[in-house]
Amino acid sequence: CVTLDVQAACQDTAVTQELLKEGFHRDLLVKVELGEHPGGCAVAARMRLPPGIYVDPYELATLQQHNLTKAVLFPDVIDLEAPKYLARDLLLLLFLEPDACCSHCFQAAVPVHTRYHRPAEGRQEALVVLESPEVLLCCCHSHLSAECWEPAEVDTPCSSDNTGPCQWHSTKHRPAYEESMLRVPVGLRKHSSLVCALTLLTTGLCSGLILTAACKYGHFS
């Protein structure tokens, strides 16, 4: 009976994530409702982004300069132009802000971008699955119950502005969630010859126009 009561208490933490906007450039909104939250704790969501989706580190740095988003990206240097089949997983630690409408709720949003996928045979879209984030707490002056929280191996400070060490804790019990699926349009292999021909034609035409303009209006010594 004691075990059941502990598990029931630890399952109060709930995580939801939602993909906003349409197209290849979206906003990922993460919301956390804590069942236990001592005051003075930093709250973060640690999520693994599959190769089909990424966060732009330059865009993230700009948002952090304007205090719009606080996050740490691992690795912090990535190839933005790489297609999905040449990319790697990314680890994102997103610091959450208190929700004014709920005393024990936290949320944050971060821009995410979809990578190009390989052309397919018969289907015109691919699925990118986002697993539920892991909820992390960093409490410098408070204590968390050992039944619900355990030390997490996270080598990062309690905030994106701090450089000091921090002991993060994670929930022992997985929160209720549904995986988010992003549908990405992909090309068809049977159209590859047509696409290549049009690309070469367009490239040749544009190069000819640039060369003509350079010869007509350029000044050569």
From TrEMBL:
Signal peptide: none annotated. One of its GO terms (biological process) is GPI anchor biosynthetic process. GO terms for cellular component: endoplasmic reticulum membrane. It is a single-pass membrane protein. SMART domains: PIG-X (SM00780). Pathway: Glycolipid biosynthesis; glycosylphosphatidylinositol-anchor biosynthesis. Keywords: Endoplasmic reticulum, Glycoprotein, GPI-anchor biosynthesis, Membrane, Transmembrane, Transmembrane helix. It comes from the Eukaryota. It is found in: Endoplasmic reticulum membrane. Coiled coil: none annotated. InterPro entries: PIG-X/PBN1, PIGX. PANTHER family: PHOSPHATIDYLINOSITOL-GLYCAN BIOSYNTHESIS CLASS X PROTEIN. Stabilizing subunit of the glycosylphosphatidylinositol-mannosyltransferase I complex which catalyzes the transfer of the first mannose, via an alpha-1,4 bond from a dolichol-phosphate-mannose (Dol-P-Man) to the glucosaminyl acyl phosphatidylinositol (GlcN-(acyl)PI) intermediate to generate alpha-D-Man-(1->4)-alpha-D-GlcN-(1->6)-(1-radyl,2-acyl-sn-glycero-3-phospho)-2-acyl-inositol and participates in the sixth step of the glycosylphosphatidylinositol-anchor biosynthesis. Probably acts by stabilizing the mannosyltransferase PIGM. This is Phosphatidylinositol-glycan biosynthesis class X protein. The lineage of its organism: Eukaryota, Metazoa, Chordata, Craniata, Vertebrata. The gene is Pigx.
